[in-house]
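Before the break, one more example. Copy the sequence into your notebook; we will annotate it together after we see the structure.
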Amino acid sequence: MDTLRFILLLFLILIYEGGSAQYHPLDSLAQQGPGALMMISRNLDSLPGSWIAGETVKTATLGISSLPVPSDQEFTTRMAGIKTPFGMEMNETLRASIKLYITDKPAASSIMLGLGTAYNPGLEKVLRRMELPADLKYLPMALSSYFPGARSPQGAAGFWQFMFTVAKANGLRIDSWVDERYNNKKATQAALDYIKDLYSIYKDWNLSVAAFINGPSSISKAMRRAGGKTSYTELYPWLPFETRDYFPAFIALIYIQNFHELSGINPVIIKNLREPDTLLVNKPLHFEQLAAVLALPVKCFQELNPQYKLNFIPAWDHNYFIVLPEGYRERFIQLSDSIYHYKESIYVKNTSVETPSQSPSMKQGKREKSVNQDQGGTSSGYYIVKKGETLGNIASKLNVTVDDLKRWNKIKGTVVKTGRKLIINKGQK
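Here is what the structure looks like once it is written out:
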């Protein structure tokens, strides 16, 4: 580990968001946010309604038989027969995780395992290159259930559930346009680099993954309060309520993936992820342009490219990658002129006005419509004031009057602050 990464790791241990709160086994659950199992349940429930799952929802219940959770002895014996550096003894928490997947939500779990079948080959290559344990491929599945818009109430986002500060410290870009926590390739590399750094400190894979999930400062505090013990079961009561159940879920998935026939669930084929196409975009592009010309739902591009926060690829100064459904690369190339020029004045040239479906919220699979285009070509929505702008040049840019801006936003003077969201209502004159 180089000096810079070591300094960053020490920084994360000191300021990691999860480490500032004081936790105790008797803390009132009413004062805490949703626990990990609840978040896993929510993400699983969201999978059948996703575009990516598509037609697999119809077949996900086929061949599923609800089997009982293994006994302590059965679990211990079976886990002893597989080669993995990860594990914990069976307890109520681990039992609840296994039950959630194989008894409570077997159909959604089959979709999740199918997504894993699609995503894992690329992840396995990175794990081999970095000489990391192969079973780490189940960690993002435990953290996000591979739901494209996974985000916790605490702000952790993406398949690897990075918090903002940790993501930035590990080199991921997060700004008004792009959130690379949702870029599977870049987030995976950042996550595995971070876990490898944590292993250089803890020299134990269970503790390293636990520190990735709960925060290294939380692990350090829990170890002190547990009298120096390092077993996850012994640390568990002292860990943050919101995150401590993700590690048992990770162990549960290692068990389920190794014993399909004993868990009653199997991965279904995710047709919409069989052979996704990737290409470079060299001009600014909105998902609405892609959807209109390629005759696909906007939701398709949102789920395949969740890193673009506003449904917009800001390719002004350099190229960006975009993922398309299988077979659509050639269609994009053939229709590229039509795609880039489709309602360009609405979706590209006036990018400061939020256009339809640009809301970054994916938590409920919906997109707010901040701007409505009427048949006369006028628009309504919002404009974010940039540094140095005045009401005069904003009015000129939007082809409205200063009086319009003042009336729509109840502005009495002539000064407008940078960053203010101005209401634009061209339909109201």
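The longest strand covers residues 379-384. The chain has 21 helices and seven strands. Try to locate both features in your own notes.
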